[in-house]
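seq as requested:
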Amino acid sequence: MTWARLELSRSGRVERKERIFDLWLNCHTQDEIAAKLDISQAVVNSKLKLLLENTKMVFSDKSLDFEQDKDFTPPIYNVWAVS
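struct tokens:
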């Protein structure tokens, strides 16, 4: 396989991963994604699993409990005022 062909197949794989993730974010099922991209549901499942594991999604354990900081005063201002 030539370098140009290998690079093309890599870019195609990247585009397919992006398309899978975009469709999934738009609430498509794995079966619907597989049908749209003409691939198996198992491939969609494995790609989504890898994408979600590799995505740096940060979930905080802390709640937005303002009582934790006794000195906190929420800012109060007129959101409708034009500056």
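The mean pLDDT is 78.
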